[in-house]
Amino acid sequence: METFGEYIKRLRINRDLSITRISEQIGMDSSLWGRIERDERRASKDVISKIAKFFNENEQDLLKRFLSDSFAYKIIAENLDVDVLQVAEQKIKYLKSK
Question: For the whole model, what pTM was predicted?
Answer without folding.
Answer: 0.86
